[in-house]
Amino acid sequence: xxxxxxxxxxxxxxxxxxxxxxxxxxxxxxxxxxxxxxxxxxxxxxxxxxxxxxxxxxxxxxxxxxxxxxxxxxxxxxxxxxxxx
Length: 85
What we know:
It is built from two helices and four strands. The mean pLDDT is 92. The protein has 85 residues and is of the alpha+beta class. The two termini are 17 Å apart.
């Protein structure tokens, strides 16, 4: 899965929570998601990654299997690579 990073930032999550990174990106290449603006929450541990469609979030759609559920593991390798750059 190819992505184009729009913006990324690290959040320390208070004084005792686990920090995480947020990445806003556009998808490239995949017919199902091509050109979508997505946002991800990436935690330090492998496999701990959530991805949402930003336009669906703007419509307050946070429902699983109703237009805004995406496999974090599908995007995770490219997201972690982008975070190291």
